[in-house]
Amino acid sequence: MMRGKTIIVTGANSGIGRATAVELLRRQARVIMACRSQERAEQAAQEIRQEAGPEQGELLVKLLDLASLGSVRSFCDEIIKEEPRIDVLINNAGIYQCPYAKTEDGFEMQFGVNHLGHFLLTHLLLDLLKRSAPSRIVVVSSKLYKYADINFDDLNSEQSYDKAFAYGRSKLANLLFTLELGRRLEGTGVTVNALTPGIVRTNLGRHVYIPFLVKPLFSLVSWAFFRTPEHGAQTSIYLACSPDVEGVQGKCFADCHEEELLPKATDEEVAKKLWDISEVMVGINA
């Protein structure tokens, strides 16, 4: 049970984030849905409350657009003003293989939303998380990190753009962020861990082109082999709630077990360099 715990879930109106919110509400947590569309989030919140059943916690909706650093700052100002504590921050929201676009602040969309938006969000809420210790940060990554690397000369994909590579890079950035943040949080009572949820049936793939004639077959395959959002959310819930991971720092999990990562996701030098550049990109004066 998570009674008395306040948990922020980004992108909680659909997919894994929504399934995570349902289960946490069921466990009587106070869940803050941090979402880009107030309207879609309010609608999802009604359904989540119905699904969570009796004896549920409290559900709130707050506006957060990770493609806007101004929105991230406004959201955090509001949280810090209104919330005496944050027990868990779940960095779940993501955008997947979208056509080339830039965020409000001029960053390539996938890197901007999946990495930089969450980077600033976590930074701004860190003092509150420290005051709430023991507290946790959960970062949703993806096994697709394996197919990318961090090209410091073209983080904005201005020289070339491959949407699959850009997604993989943003997810590799999530893992490197977890590694460096874990190092910085030693001894604070705040832990951070990442997870890879596997292939899940969500609307994350809405930008992926599937030829019309193949769609029925793809639909059939996805129902047969892809995980449900509920299944995909299990490791997020585990990292948010389980006493088994108390004090575990800077690791990655899959199916509620620690996962061995490729060396490029555990490179401390690259993690530190990415951290320093990310600070400059989001305007943090370290």
What does this structure look like?
With 286 residues, the protein is α/β, with parallel strands linked by helices. The protein has a single domain, classed as NAD(P)-binding Rossmann-like Domain (Rossmann fold). It has helices spanning 15-26, 38-52, 69-82, 109-131, 163-185, 215-225, 229-232, 234-241, 268-282; strands spanning 6-10, 30-35, 58-63, 88-91, 135-140, 190-195, 252-254, 257-258. An eight-stranded mixed sheet has the order 3-2-1-4-5-6-7-8, with helices on both faces. Helix 4 (109-131) runs parallel beside helix 5 (163-185) and helix 5 (163-185) crosses helix 9 (268-282).
Set down the secondary structure blueprint:
Elements: E1 6-10, H1 15-26, E2 30-35, H2 38-52, E3 58-63, H3 69-82, E4 88-91, H4 109-131, E5 135-140, H5 163-185, E6 190-195, H6 215-225, H7 229-232, H8 234-241, E7 252-254, E8 257-258, H9 268-282
Parallel strand pairs: 1-2, 1-4, 2-3, 4-5, 5-6, 6-7
Antiparallel strand pairs: 7-8
Helix pairs in contact: 1-2, 3-4, 4-5, 4-9, 5-9
Protein name: Retinol dehydrogenase 14a
Pfam family, one: adh_short
Keywords: Oxidoreductase
